[in-house]
Amino acid sequence: MTNIAQSSIGAGGLLRNWRQRRRMSQLDLASSAQVSTRHLSYVETGRSTPSRELLLHLARHLDVPPREQNDLLLAAGYAPTFSELDLGDPAMRPVLTAIDAILTGSEPNPTLVMDRYWNLVRANAAALTRVDGIAPELLGPPLNVLRVTLHPDGLAPSVVNFDAVAAHLIHRLRRQHAISGDPVLADLLAEAEALAPSASDIHPLNAAAALELHLRRNGIDARYLSVVSTFGTALDITASELTIETFYTVG
Question: Does domain 4-75 have CATH number 1.10.10.10?
Answer without folding.
Answer: no
